[in-house]
Q: What sequence folds into this?
């Protein structure tokens, strides 16, 4: 702030293309979606203003509540489970494998676990819908070959199993991300801390919870935030694996909105679903940013 | 007695070492098994598959399913479409991020934290909240069913993320370099292109790799915007074909394999950059 004023002049022009483009691609469409959510509209002709009717209907719609319940379970599968497994894997790889077998071995494992992350979501969906196919799929064939025929299922076609199958696929997709982030975070930790703890007689479990988890808190936080938001937006895997079915067994808000927009031509209703989802994501972001800002202030202050 | 203890401990550790390694190897094998099983079945004949099932090794290497599927969906075209969109978004997105971040991080514009919040929100808003108006507006301006509309939309959405990340990098940009260039009479553009961009090349290349792969992997908006066969990207073409009548077991695994291969290629090409990126800014 002590810098002379003229130093800051002439920069605004660099922001203009970004602001114009964001307005055209994000601000205006979002405003249109919010406005449309108060109308009944088939996508052609003039929309009819109906006030909050769409929202009233949403509150009574069991599909809508089901889609949010499924999102809660997908947050478990995409954020919580991968974070827990990732913590263990990263710790074992950095503290054990890297020291006992060399960092190269640890990097090979890291790359392998990360590979599903670079796979396009639609392709991951194709791979798994083929593996989980009840008739010719590899999983059921493997179970038969192992003499475990009683365990075979119609993994994606049975309403009782479909969501759990999708959750398992999501764990597979997500696991590499926390592993990579936590391995990087662990390299920040001073090995002397562990040595000191070891000399003091701390067990592996004590070191894990008191040193590793404690010092990785910022990384765990970032991973949980980004994967939770990713779970709220999930679409591609659901589209390819189950199309929200059977029935509504794997319906998620994004696919529910898509169906209303492009299959049922209920644009107003679809807009209301999207508006609710947007409000939830932005609300969570504000909470996360506040927590982070508060945490930083507490640390530095 | 005292000497015996560490030896027993070391032996136990030696045993444990390998148990841990074996356990990890099993987990890794499980993670990679889907790739392997897809590859094995993509090179089987349909009759081999019918007879021996999906978990047997192929009796002979048969590329007919892959070749036939490739021609049927005109896969070369799909690869080209995906490549054009991804490369354009990566280049334009990095350029847009650099310009925005130059103004916010180095220019320290008034209200910069509000602008940053704006760009963060622009990146986080779910695409389904934008899709219908974008669909409607793109029809109005005759950009519907074109790669152009996707390039514009993804450049903005990913550029918004890049702006957020790069601004925090440019916050710490050595001020004396900028001041020195100003004393030498260099203008704002010259400083951006000759000093800021070359010195932040590493971060920019991380953004480039991520933008490219993210765009390649996009499914929702391409699904809505690209309806004609000639314009579809790899993900859309393969995604909408699932469940079609001609998609038998070997054809499905062939389609999965040719969808996986480009991803693995990019992974090998960008691996270091990707890991560095995830590591540096916890990019996602």
A:
């Amino acid at each position: 702030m002590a810098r002379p004023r003229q130093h800051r002049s002439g920069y605004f022009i660099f922001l203009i293309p970004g602001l114009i483009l964001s307005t055209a691609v994000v601000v205006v469409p979002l405003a249109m979606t919010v406005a449309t959510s108060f109308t009944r509209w088939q996508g052609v002709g003039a929309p009819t203003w109906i006030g909050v009717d769409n929202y009233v209907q949403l509150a009574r719609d069991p599909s809508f509540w089901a889609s949010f319940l499924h999102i809660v379970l997908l947050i478990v599968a995409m954020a919580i489970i991968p974070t827990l497994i990732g913590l263990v894997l990263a710790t074992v790889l950095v503290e054990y494998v890297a020291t006992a077998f060399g960092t190269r071995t640890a990097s090979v494992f890291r790359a392998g676990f990360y590979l599903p992350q670079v796979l396009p979501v639609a392709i991951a969906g194709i791979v798994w819908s083929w593996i989980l196919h009840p008739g010719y799929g590899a999983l059921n064939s493997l179970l038969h070959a192992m003499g475990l025929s009683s365990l075979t299922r119609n993994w994606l076609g049975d309403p009782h199993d479909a969501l759990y199958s999708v959750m398992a696929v999501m764990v597979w997709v997500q696991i590499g991300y926390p592993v990579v982030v936590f391995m990087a975070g662990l390299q920040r930790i001073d090995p002397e801390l562990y040595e000191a703890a070891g000399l003091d007689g701390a067990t592996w479990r004590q070191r894990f919870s008191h040193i590793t988890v404690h010092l990785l808190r910022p990384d765990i936080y970032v991973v949980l935030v980004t994967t939770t938001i990713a779970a709220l937006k999930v679409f591609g895997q659901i589209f390819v694996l189950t199309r929200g079915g059977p029935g509504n067994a794997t319906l998620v808000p994004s696919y529910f909105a898509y169906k209303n927009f492009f299959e049922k031509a209920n644009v107003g209703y679809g807009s209301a679903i999207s508006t609710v989802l947007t409000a939830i994501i932005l609300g969570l972001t504000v909470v996360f940013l506040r927590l982070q800002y508060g945490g930083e202030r507490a640390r530095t202050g | 007695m005292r000497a015996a203890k560490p030896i027993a401990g070391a032996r136990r550790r030696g045993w444990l070492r390998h148990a841990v390694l074996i356990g990890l190897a099993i987990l890794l094998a499980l993670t990679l098994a889907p790739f392997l099983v897809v590859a094995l079945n993509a090179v089987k004949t349909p009759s081999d598959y019918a007879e021996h099932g999906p978990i047997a090794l192929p009796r002979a290497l048969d590329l007919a399913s892959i070749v036939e599927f490739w021609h049927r969906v005109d896969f070369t075209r799909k690869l080209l479409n995906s490549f054009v969109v991804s490369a354009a978004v990566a280049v334009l997105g990095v350029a847009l991020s650099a310009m925005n971040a130059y103004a916010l991080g180095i220019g320290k514009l008034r209200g910069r934290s509000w602008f940053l919040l704006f760009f963060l929100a622009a990146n986080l808003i779910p695409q389904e909240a934008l899709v219908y108006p974008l669909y409607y507006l793109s029809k109005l301006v005759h950009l519907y069913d074109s790669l152009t509309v996707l390039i514009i939309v993804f450049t903005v959405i990913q550029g918004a993320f890049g702006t957020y990340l790069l601004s925090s990098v440019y916050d710490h940009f050595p001020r004396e370099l900028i001041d020195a260039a100003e004393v030498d009479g260099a203008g704002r553009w010259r400083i951006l292109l000759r000093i800021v961009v070359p010195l932040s090349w590493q971060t920019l290349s991380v953004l480039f790799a991520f933008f490219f792969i993210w765009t390649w992997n996009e499914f929702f908006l391409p699904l809505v915007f690209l309806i004609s066969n000639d314009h579809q990207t790899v993900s859309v073409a393969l995604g909408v074909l699932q469940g079609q009548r001609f998609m038998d077991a070997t054809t499905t695994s062939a389609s999965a394999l040719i969808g996986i291969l480009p991803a693995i290629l990019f992974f090998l090409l960008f691996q270091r950059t990707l890991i560095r990126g995830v590591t540096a800014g916890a990019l996602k």
